[in-house]
Structures are given as C-alpha cells and as structure tokens.
Fold this protein.
Amino acid sequence: MKFCLTIIFSLSTLILLAQQKKAIIKVDTSFSAQVFEIPYAGVAVIDARFDKTKIGCIYNTVTAGFVSDKKHDADFPDSLNRYLPLFLKTIFRTDSSRQEKLMILIKKFRIADHFSKGLDNDDRIEIETTLNISASFFAVRNNNYYKLFSVENVLAHNIYKPHERKREFEEGTRAIALRILLNKLLQDKKWHTDYSGSYFTLPDIENGLNQRYQLPIYQTPYIKGIYKTFSEFKRNSPSITNINVIYKENKIISIKDEMNKPVLLQNIWGVSDGSKLYLHLRGELSELIPCDKSFKVLSYRTRAELRGGAGAGNIGSSIKSGLLNDIKIKEYFDLDMETGKVFLQEVFGKSTLGSIQFYSSD
C-alpha cells in the first residue's frame, strides 16, 4: 500500500511538472525541402503581434487512450523574428545573386492543436494542427518597401498520432505540419514586382508600429467607469464614469449608476474600477490580466464547446459521455486587440465558443 501511494505521489509530481513546461516547436534548419524559389537574397521578419509571449499552445496529447485537458504554451527556440526566417528557408530557396530582400510583417501567428474528434470516450482520436496567421509581405530595394501581398487565414493539417508522447513535443509532428501549412499558404503567391509602384520607408513602418502599440489603455491610469464598446476600452474613455462598484469576496457582484440604479451587464463591454479592468464574459465580470501588449481573462469552457457541439454530445452518445461534455474546465481566454473579441487558442472559430460574448465590440 505504501509503495502504491509512493508511485501515485511520484506520478502526480511528474504531471505537475509537465503542466509547467513550455513546448518548443523546432525543425532541423540545416535541412531544406527547397519546394520553390523566391527572387530575394534573404528574409527578415518584423514581429508586430500584440502578444509575443508564445506562438500558441499544444495539448498533453494521448496517454492510455485518454485525451488530456491540460495543454502547454508553445514557442519557437528563439524569438519569432529570428527563428521564422530560418524555418521558412526549409521551404523555399533564396537567390544570393539578388540585391532585394523579403520582409514579412507579422500581425498574428498562432498555432494550436484542435480536436476534430476524440473528446468523447467512444470517438476515434483525430487531432489537427491549426495556424492562424495575418501577415504582409514586402520586397525591399534601396531601403524602400514595396507591398507584395497580404495573407489572413486559418489553416489546418491532420496530425493523428495516438502514440505520441510529451518527449516528442520538441520536434516532429507539429513542426512538420507547420511546414506543410506554410508551404500551402505561400507556394502560389506572386513574389515578383516591377518596383514602379508606391512604396513605404522604414520610418513609415516604424511609425505605424508605434501607433499600434501606443493605445491609451496602455499608457495612462485606468479611468473608473463603464466601457460600452471595445473602442472606448482602447481609448481608456468610459462613456459612464459616475458609478459605484460593489464587491463580494474580491469579485464584482453589482454596478450602480449615479442614480443608485443597477447597471445591466448585457449593455456593457467592460468595466474599470480605477485600478483593475474587467470584461463582461459569460454573464459576469472577469478580470482582464495584462499579457504583453494584450490581455487574457480566466473563464471556462466545456468539452462540447471545444469540439464544436452545442450540447452534451452527439445523438447516441452515452450518458457518461454527455456528462463529461458538460463539465466546466477553467481556461485562459485571450483578447484580440484588433477586434475586441476573446478566443480560446485552439478554437479559431471552429466551435460554439464564438458566441459567448453578448455585447458590441465596435
């Protein structure tokens, strides 16, 4: 009995440590599939993401036939602007005889595991790597930046690997899937330009980035009041300022206006109490936690929501499966600083979680 308890304690310790690990997505950058060639001598990346703390998340994969609800943040071995050019060179060849270079401005780059099946005990496990990307591509000649094209897409590639274990997080499945997705996204793009059109200078681009990151919500103390829209939030300009915030056990339970009347939550985007920010999410006010130049909020999701179902499982699912689908699992949701919507990293519009907000984000 003592031996069994020791084993259980050891396993619990390992599980706890595993949950703290950040998964590293890397490839052998000395290898090049050389799928196609681009007319540029080199590649540079400008990282314009709001949240640079990670590139996404991956799950704790499958063990003994069960899908874990735990997941790890994922990142490259180096910063995005340093590592992505190396990653891309495993897909295409550059031309060292050219003077022009390629510059990629990345506004969004998120990878995640998405379970298309497998959250019911009787389903065959099917997992796909998703890539949510928004980027603009420029040809650089004589320090002038000529716009080539932009991409904004969500792509997915199946990575059905029921035998995969945590030790394989660092290489293999997801990196290969990411290479396939990037190749699919970029192979047929128009890479040439005649350099006769309009262009940007580096100061133009730097000025645009400064404006992107100099939102009033970052730079000034939070003004106490109610944000009716995401636009008010970004400007740190609540439309209703004379409010009384009522707490219970460090949670906001009520807000009253200047007439001492309760404010209906469905009419607001969020609230500031002067020191903290709160988002109206799932019928309550949850604290917005700063994360780089963005925010995250702790809420919950169910298995049915994650998979895309609206209820407690498919017709014919067992009672046990239905109960599992309805279990609330705490998750951190990220705030999209361009749209004002929150999202769970591995969903990307693939589930019913897209309808959990009931306010205007304009």
Q: What stands out?
A: The chain has two domains: 18-210, 216-355.
